[in-house]
Amino acid sequence: MSKQESLVSICIPVYNCERCIKETIESIWAQTYKNIEIIIVDDGSTDNTKQILKALKHESMYVFHQKNLGAAAARNLAYRKSNGRYIKFLDGDDVINTTMIESQMSLAADNQDCIISSKWGRFYANDLRTFKLSPEDCWQTLPAHQWLCSSWKNGQSMTQPGIFLLPREIIDNSGLWDEQLTLIDDLDFFTRVILKSKFILFDPSAVLYYRSGNKGSLSDNKKDEAILSAFMAIDKATANLLAMHATLETKLACANTWQNFVYTIYPKYPGLGANAQKKIDELGGSSLKFTAGGITKALTNVLGWKMTKRLKQAFRAIK
Predict the structure, then answer these.
(1) Distance (Å, whole) CA 136 – CA 140
(2) Any idea where the domains of the chain sit in the sequence?
(3) Residue 34: Cβ-neighbour burial (10 angstroms; 0-12, 13-18, 19+)
(4) Contact yes or no for 164/139 (Cβ under 8 A)
(5) Cut 0.85: pTM above it
(6) Ramachandran region of residue 126, left (φ > 0), alpha (ψ -120 to 50) or beta?
(7) Bridge partners of 63?
(8) How far is CA 175 from the centre of its chain?
(9) What pLDDT, in 10s, does the model give residues 9-53?
(10) CATH homologous superfamily of 8-220
(11) CA dist list (Å): 131 to 44, 74, 88, 140, 157
């Protein structure tokens, strides 16, 4: 099957996206590659998302509705309703450049056992003029486990779903999204998918525009359930990588991912922090340093990161 004949399914979970879903969909309709279907699952939105989707009716766009079950469940339903040989999981508030699908498909056509990745960056206040790229070491073509090590070396646990073009066969071999996870479920899913791939091929001309700063977004969710989900996702992802490649490089990448988690949750979740620290020790230790700016950096230099974080927590409690 040639790249011109291959259908690409864009699977989009939406929840209260009334202010941005139109822009997301229009960036797909504007693609230079035309053999695309859009599968949208509304995850129980309570704003005007449903009405906006109805007004955006298109012959290649299919909209489904479910009660609020979470983004993972919405993505799974979208995937099951899709027909494409290639899949892109795109969030309902992100945007892609007009040639992204065409350029990624040009790489995918001759590399059926590979995933295609792209550049990405953030924009703020719903204004694309604020967009800036967020360069990463993994912006290169690498074997699967080396890509993960490159991505995780600085403790990064979030994977942008929309950067990847995925062959359907690889998803079927790796399994769908874990619906028990509510925070960094992308880390678990894409680790499994990546480890079923031969290479991650980097497409420097494809760009994802990631919308940041939306109040109430899942990435801002720091409730107890979400923190436990993050622990579970990191546990699953690191275990999967180590089961296939338990080298010094992979152990350090896993330790650094755990260390970033410890820095993030301290001191509010001592039990999870202790469990994560145990894993770091078993892996041989982490090289990841605590990073901060402004007054936090100054306090850390004097008091250490633990005391600084305890002081900040105490200050927030009395505000």
Answers:
(1) 9
(2) 8-220
(3) exposed
(4) no
(5) yes
(6) left
(7) 40
(8) 16
(9) 999 999 999 999 999 999 999 999 999 999 999 999 999 999 999
(10) Spore Coat Polysaccharide Biosynthesis Protein SpsA; Chain A (3.90.550.10)
(11) 30, 28, 22, 21, 22
